[in-house]
Sequence to fold (331 residues):
Amino acid sequence: MSWPSVSVVMPVLNEEHHLAAAVEHVLEQDYPGELEIALAVGPSKDRTREVADGIAAADTRVTVVDNPSGKTPSALNAAIGASTHDIVARIDGHAMMPSDYLRVAVETLDETGADNVGGIMAAEGVSAWEKAVAAAMTSKIGVGNARFHTGGEGGPADTVYLGVFRRSALERVGGYDEAFLRAQDWEMNHRIRQTGGTVWFQPRMRVTYRPRRTVGLLAKQYFHYGRWRRVVARQHKGTINLRYLAPPVALAGNLAGLVGGFLWWPLWLVPGAYLALVIGATLPLGRGLPAASRPMIPLALATMHMSWGAGFITSPPSLGSDSRTAQAAQG
Fold:
């Protein structure tokens, strides 16, 4: 096949120590076609901008653009606007892709006619806690049946991790909605599918992801996931399903059982059953993990479920009110 040129867009913030290696990793991809990289640099607290400018000065394939807001969707739109090629690949600064990542992506675009292809967010930990979180994040009890977390056969999907796009699809939907500080990938992929495009899951595109290193950071991450997924459900009717309702239902049931149990003790069986469920999941999920990681799996699962549920339940109606969809609905 004739290999098209690819633009790689990368949002960058506070990446002084990792940026050079991230750029080098992209440029060393086993891809026969031409590559360029657009770095959208936010207002960092370190020397990220100086490092980015130095990389661009040394390699004409690298362009640097400003992202004054520091927000991910605005960074992606700025980088897309500064890039030139017909294929656009979103890469994060800490993403560790296989060397054939772009080659497989372009082959899949060509074979399927899809507008966006992406693969697996392969969570892998280093510490005992990170390994426990990785086991939870790659399990159905932890994240449902989302193939970009748990794997599975290739085919059409609602969304994928990161993504390699046809520029024509990005232009058709107007790029990322900058109001979505989280869930911007899911939301834009929904608009791509609404306008007749296909999002394709390709399990060969496996990208290593490092989980949050503390319980607090994991809770914060999943709280915001739940909060913004509620915004997507609110603005795009019909996109919610049982997988998304399970965490808020579990949270409400556990709270009702804990409080109501003081009035009628059988209600304590509800949180007891949930606790038994997450503890029971430890055995299959803990296979092959260090002994120190296994007792942490129930905590990881409960943190993900309860934080996501709390975010979903408490998501304020005003959140995302400045999005394109909300503005269009208001006339």
